[in-house]
Amino acid sequence: MKITAIHLYAIHLPLRVPFVVSYHSYNHMPSVIVKLETDEGIVGYGEGVADEHVTGETWESTYHILKNTLAPVILGSNPKNIENLHDIMNGAIYGAPTAKAAIDIACFDLIGKKLGQPAYQLIGGRYHDKFPITHVLSIKEPEHIAEEAASMVDKGYDSFKMKVGTDVQKDVERIQAVRERVGNDVSIRVDANQGWKNSATTLIALRSLRDLNLDWIEQPVLADDIDGMVFIKSKTDVPLMIDEGLKGSREMREIIQKRAADKVNIKLMKCGGIYPAAKLAHQAEMAGIECQVGSMVESSIASSAGFHVAFSKKIITSVELTGPLKFTKDVGNLHYDVPFIRLTEQPGLGIDVNEDILHELTVFQDVID
Fold first, then answer.
1. Would residue 173 show up in a list of annotated catalytic residues for this protein?
2. Does the annotation mark 225 as catalytic?
3. Residue 347 covered by a domain
């Protein structure tokens, strides 16, 4: 099997409501969809959703790297040779994990379809039967975010991830308002997205949050401040998760060596796709560090890829892949059985891509053949 054509689609995924985190507010999610054609007539889909605040990539740069750098070097390759394919991509360009993830995901879709197996069977088989879905709460005024949380509890959710990372005192008020509104039996996770900047500010917040029974605090300090995470961890019993601070195996080694976190958040867009994500999970398992698979708010394509990784690994104990629930239109049909997600046994990623919607959402496109 050989890759004979690579189609690129730069799209805007329309959000139901703006998605607000510490560093940006999104009215839509810019994504790049990759469609690989082969000489056997099998087609595979991948996706890259860039975040310049996390990996230094943009929507535009991801598209152009795919078009001008990666697509030309993998054209004619056998997508089943995934280790070699990554070596080719790494030799062509340093970094650029989001662009590489789009290719990687499309290849796993192709391999699964070729073999008639779901992608999770290619990286260890199925371990988990289902995962609870965590609803992500964007940054809002305390009363508004508490109201949203209460409404989602009524819909069956019992787990929330709160986006914070602005003014610390205001963030504390937001978290307190949600806890008061939903009660003590609902899980709350707090993600500062680097917004508290340093360990001193984080410790101020933690003093006020000590009795709120939080599942964990995620990435309170700047991504590269691994030592800051070590210091915070020594001062609190609230579990800490690293997200932006973990991109690849080098960061994972440092996190393990310094015991800098209780949990890590693996994202396919940060590490380069399904294959590198599985490697990170193996590293974490050797150190006894629990993992989560998160997302950059992706369509059904990349969200499904993340779920395949999560379902295959015992050490992955939580997921936050809710992008498709946030869009008014999606290019795929990943199914959520709220408040759970269960994967099918369909081959590849297990989703159908609606080409009509794909073209409707496309801003610009190219084909390399």
1. no
2. no
3. no
